[in-house]
Design goal:
- The chain has 477 residues and is of the alpha/beta class.
- The chain is 22% helix and 23% strand.
- The strands form two sheets. Strands 1, 2, 3, 4, 5, 13, 14 and 15 form an eight-stranded mixed beta sheet that branches. The protein has a seven-stranded parallel beta sheet with strand order 6-7-8-9-10-11-12.
- The longest helix has 18 residues, at 10-27.
Length: 477
């Protein structure tokens, strides 16, 4: 580094050092000794599952092999001897890691009644346990505060957090900000998005109560600059700006209309109960219909007749925030369960949570199990019984199927395991896999076995008791 500093100057040398430090910080600390090489074809092998991958038209009984964070193979009867760790998932679906297209996770600022504050949630507590490996924060931040959101949440989360940038520069912070026409700047918003390709994946307009078309037209300016789609939460239902005019004149093919089953903005034909003319025009023009359940955007009286007519959503999403997570919405799988109640199949709802949202945000490296692609995987079961599913009006519809996440794999490593499918029994005398290699396939600690590697039953020490002399280690056999 000294010779480099002599050539490029001290200021450039400092910049190089800061850049390297930033990369190391994002990668996280390296714990433990370096891993020995793995000569086998797979680090992790999931066997005996039912593989669903809409993008690649896979619907089959089979196995999935993973190596170095990538999908290495999909097929029937892959050899367990070719893997460091094999997990039997018989009776379960193996799907791509789920994508939640509409969430709010810009929390930690301390701001009250704000989606750039206390109304948002920390992502990792609500995602991985539901098979969700990628989420999109839908406009909680704007160009003014995106850097803070990135530092607080995006760069610190195990979940892959992408963002739609709010057309309001200050983000989603309540009507005082979201109705401020002077802070809606498509040029600055688009230029900000260009600086973070693959992270900022869309433009969002939401909650606007005025009669003007400015937020939607400015969003299109940002779209032209950054070449990313616009998502619209159409805010107040104003006669001056009807939904039909929005989808005919102010949105473009491949844009996204969220909350399509709310019934609050003329999504439903009042005579037939089916989709309104606006929703039909959306489908004709290639504008995507996203569920965006939230706390107040999914009604059985709207969704049931619309879906019964054959009009199904393009994507299933939660609109996750503090007001929806304990309300009727619950989580992404619960929203998918509601579409199952309405007659969709398991492969359909999986597609609406994987390949479809990936396509909508033009990030098709996610939401599939392509060989060589990112190894994000969900292992899901379908429970059968009598279950109640609640809408925005606290009315319920009964169903007989319920999706449950049994395991989640993110970037090739197990990050959630509901029933310990990958775990050894507590009283086992040896590991089912080489624990020295465990960091290749799990983020969990593998407990050392044997007297020389740690006590099976550590002695309890009373509070304030004097330290005891440790017994001498038993020599290795």
């Amino acid at each position: 580094m000294r010779s480099v500093c002599g050539v490029v100057g001290k200021w450039m040398c400092a910049a190089l050092l800061l850049s390297a430090a930033a990369v190391r910080a994002q990668e996280g600390p390296v714990r433990g000794p370096a891993l020995p090489p793995n000569p086998l074809p797979y680090d992790l092998l999931l066997t005996n599952g039912h593989v669903l991958d809409d993008k690649n038209h896979v619907d089959m009984s089979g196995d999935v092999g993973i190596k170095d964070g990538k999908i290495a193979a999909i097929g029937a009867h892959l050899n367990p001897k070719d893997a460091l760790k094999t997990v039997d998932v018989q009776g379960y679906y193996i799907t791509p890691g789920l994508i939640d297209l509409h969430t709010h996770v810009y929390t930690g600022t301390g701001e009250k009644n704000s989606y750039a504050g206390d109304l948002s949630v920390m992502p990792d507590g609500f995602t991985l346990r539901n098979g969700v490996t990628t989420i999109v924060d839908a406009g909680s931040s704007g160009w003014r505060n995106f850097d803070d959101f990135k530092d607080r949440i995006i760069d610190r989360s195990r979940t892959r957090v992408l963002a739609e940038l709010n057309i309001v520069g200050s983000g989603m912070r309540g009507a005082k900000y979201e109705d401020n026409l002077d802070d809606m700047d498509g040029k600055l918003t688009g230029e900000k998005a260009l600086k973070f390709p693959g992270v900022i994946v869309g433009i969002k307009s939401a909650h606007f109560t005025g009669p003007e078309w400015k937020p939607y037209d400015q969003a299109q300016i940002a779209e032209d600059i950054a070449h990313i789609p616009v998502m619209i939460d159409f805010g107040a239902n104003r006669i001056e700006r009807p939904l039909l005019q929005l989808v005919e004149s102010h949105l473009r093919p491949s844009d996204i209309y969220t909350h399509c089953f709310s019934g609050l903005r003329n999504e439903q034909d009042p005579q037939t109960g089916g989709p309104s003319k606006a929703l039909l025009v959306m489908r004709q023009r290639g504008i995507y219909c996203d569920v965006g359940h939230g706390g107040g955007s999914f009604a059985w009286t709207v969704a049931k007749p619309i879906v019964a007519s054959g009009y199904k959503p393009d994507s299933i999403s939660t609109d996750l925030h503090v007001g929806s997570m304990n309300n009727g919405m619950k989580d992404l799988l619960n929203v998918a369960d509601k579409l199952l109640v309405l007659g969709e199949t398991v492969p359909e709802v999986i597609a609406q949570m994987t390949s479809h949202p990936a396509h909508e945000i033009r990030q098709e490296q996610y939401g599939n199990l392509s060989v060589g692609g990112i190894a994000d995987v969900a292992v899901l079961s379908v429970d059968h019984g009598n279950f109640g599913f609640v809408d925005m009006y606290n009315t319920k519809m009964m169903g007989t199927q319920k999706l449950v996440c049994q395991m989640t794999v993110k970037d090739g490593k197990i990050v959630y395991d509901l029933n310990g499918l990958s775990a050894d029994m507590w009283d086992a005398t040896k590991h089912s896999a080489d624990e020295r290699q465990a960091r290749r396939w799990t983020v969990f600690s593998e407990r050392p076995f044997g007297a020389t590697r740690g006590q099976r039953f550590p002695t309890s020490t009373p509070v304030n008791a004097p330290p005891q002399v440790q017994d001498k280690a038993i020599p290795k056999k």
